[in-house]
Amino acid sequence: MHTTLRQISRALAAGALSVALLSAGSTGALAGEAKPKPSPSPSTSAMASISIKASTASVNAGGSVTFTGRTSGLKVGWPLVLQHQKAGKWIPLKATTKTKNGSSYSLTAKLNTVGTEHLRISAVGKKVYSPAVTVNVT
């Protein structure tokens, strides 16, 4: 009877692994595992999004630009930060805001660096970003 229980256990493990491979695809599952790993619950980052619109496409150095947009999948009051791209990296600026009722936000920032600025909004503590917008600073 000990052999029968072992065979049943192996058959159940193989069946569970097969179901995991079929439902989640082959990524993340290893053929040698006896038990499948539980699939992670959908993260807020996968479901969340941020839109962005700049009030102007060009501004004089030291001038202000207002960024507005809407969020989806973020709670009201979630902190947001403006980032700019420098040497291929996204650097946070000292311009922050929070999501409001209706999932909207508004943020005004002074842009001092002359040149083309690539900017985006980031949800603090999450990997959720708006698309980049370009503002020319003269």
Description of the molecule:
With 138 residues, the chain is of the alpha+beta class. Helices cover 20% and strands 41% of the residues. It has helices at residues 2-24, 44-47; strands at residues 49-50, 53-54, 58-59, 63-72, 79-86, 89-98, 104-111, 115-123, 133-137. The strands form two sheets. Strands 3-9-8-5-6 form a five-stranded mixed β-sheet, with no helix packed on it. Strands 1, 2, 4 and 7 form a four-stranded antiparallel β-sheet that branches. A hairpin with a 2-residue loop joins β5 (79-86) and β6. The longest helix is centred in the N-terminal third of the chain and has 23 residues, at 2-24. The protein is elongated and about 80 Å long. 16% of the residues are buried.
| Count of alpha/pi helices | 2
Name the overall outline: elongated
pLDDT averaged residue by residue = 82
Spatial extent as radius of gyration: 24 Å
Output the strand order for the largest sheet.
3-9-8-5-6
Task: Determine the strand fraction and express it as a percent band.
Answer: 35-45%
What is the CA–CA distance across the termini? 83 Å
Portion of residues within helices: 10-25%
Q: Unreliable segments (pLDDT under 50, ≥5 consecutive)?
A: 26-33, 39-44
Break the fold down into its secondary structure elements and pairings:
Layout (H helix, E strand, L loop, with lengths): L1 H23 L19 H4 L1 E2 L2 E2 L3 E2 L3 E10 L6 E8 L2 E10 L5 E8 L3 E9 L9 E5 L1
Parallel strand pairs: 3-9
Antiparallel strand pairs: 1-4, 2-4, 4-7, 5-6, 5-8, 8-9
